[in-house]
Amino acid sequence: MALILVRGENKSKLLSAISDMERHGNLTLTTKPKVISAEFADSLVEQILKSKLKTNSNVATAFFVKEDTTLSILKIKQIHPPAHIVVVSQEYKGYDELEEKLTIAHDMEGYQSYKMVNVGKIDYSVKGERRYIQNNKLNSYNE
Predict the structure, then answer these.
(1) For the chain, what is the radius of gyration of the CA atoms?
(2) CA–CA separation, 89 vs 1, rounded Å?
(3) Rounded to 10 degrees, what is the CA torsion of 35, 38, 19, 4?
(4) How far is CA 81 from CA 13, 14, 15, 103, 118, in A?
(5) pTM, two decimal places
(6) Which of 8, 41, 53, 112 is disulfide-compatible with 83, CB 3.0–4.6 A?
(7) 3-state DSSP call for residue 136?
């Protein structure tokens, strides 16, 4: 699992960057994005990059993805999101502090995963209730 930090100008750009990572980078989020203070995110990125940032962010979020750190970096390099994305490795000092902040942080509002979960076909022959017909072939793309 990799820990990803996203910082940007506004919330819509963060949400767009997250959906780009899911759609085009094929990354699988294991936790919902959590709201992190922008000042903390900026200081953490400065520690990782070992240089001053040109611009400060207004909003930031962090979450875990299923893929490992190296694979996450390679997949993120292939896309061009509208926000600054940093994969935080366990080697960095701020990793433990960020992980601790995630346990108490609130979920980011407005996030909706693009990967749909298909519960099956609806059987309309039964009046007054919905009965789902389970079909594993329909759900095979999630596995």
Answers:
(1) 18
(2) 10
(3) -80
(4) 8, 9, 10, 26, 28
(5) 0.78
(6) 8
(7) coil
